[in-house]
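To whoever is on call:

I kicked off a structure prediction for a single chain this morning and the downstream step that reads the tokens threw a length-mismatch warning. I double-checked the sequence; it's 365 residues and nothing unusual in it as far as I can see. Pasting both halves so you can look.
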Amino acid sequence: MAITNIRAGLIGTGFGGSVVLPALRQVPGMEVAAVCSAHAEKAGAFAAAHGIPDATNNVEALTQRDDLELVLVCTPPLLHAPMSRAALDAGKHTFSTKPLAATATEARQLAEAARAQGVVTAMDLDNRYVPVRRYFRHLVASGYLGTPRCVLSTVLTHHATKPDSRIYFWNWVSVRAQAGGILGASLGLHHLDLLRYTFGELIDIGGLATTQVTEKPVLAPGYSEWSELGPDTPIVGTRACDAEDTVVVHGRLAAGGLFQMTASWSTHHGSGARVEAYGSDGTLVLDTDGVLYGARAKDSELSALEVPPSFGPPSLATDHVGRFVALFGEMAGAIRGEPIDAAYATFDDGLRVREIAEAVTRETE
């Protein structure tokens, strides 16, 4: 029998509550029927506040429910693998926040389990839905560049140097053993995935990763990474951190040419994200202002390229929830067995970016 109404169980109320829940509620035929948190009281309060019928602190109980088709894993990274595995073993379609797992070995086990169960999987690599990124990919696939020769991606931000970001403060993102760092669950992973999404598979990977901000302030009790943060946020000391904040990743594009990605969130005046792609027949440059420039080999200079409306509304560039609405809309279609050309990343994609991250040599300065 075809599925019409997709009932989901949500595990985790931080990112799950701020982004995943409001997005899923905008997708016709999808609903969150149960929520799970580590503390029963917290789960109950969250369910009451958001009109969710059931709450629990038991992951196994949630994943075993016969009335749920989908499980949403929105917890810290070390919990992704066991919780996603519980959902997969129960035959549930599964969504996970990044990274898929703390190690490539665990990620491979999850991807294999998902294929064996024949279920739909997805990950929160939502920047695939930014219209200019989708148009960039379309142009590359259409042969605008010809054969790619050289791709340079830079991602330079101040997240670890200004107290308006959770990255500035000590938390699991600061700890290598908890899959933190810029290649763990954040910017680096997004942009590695975007390189794969745009240019195809990345091979012969190498690189270096280092920790330059080795001590961070600790938030006062009552504050969390989801609190409103700023210069006046109270702190109670500092703690050491060893997760990488600056990386250089390089290798080959399977379609031809070389690539390099330089990423850091420890810069004071970071320029943002920029991609330069040079090929046998043309050039494409996505500037830090989000404008895409292009030129064919015969042209004397780059010109701004207008993104056609068919690639999505411009608002998706900044609308985090809106990108997840698009993601869950496509995932719902896949669960229902509809023929769709989905853009969302699967557990196979999560495995590959985890493998790439592990191929980079880490150092602590």
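Update from on-call: the warning came from a stale cache, not from the record. Cleared it. Sanity check on the structure: The CA atoms of residues 36 and 56 lie 5 Å apart.
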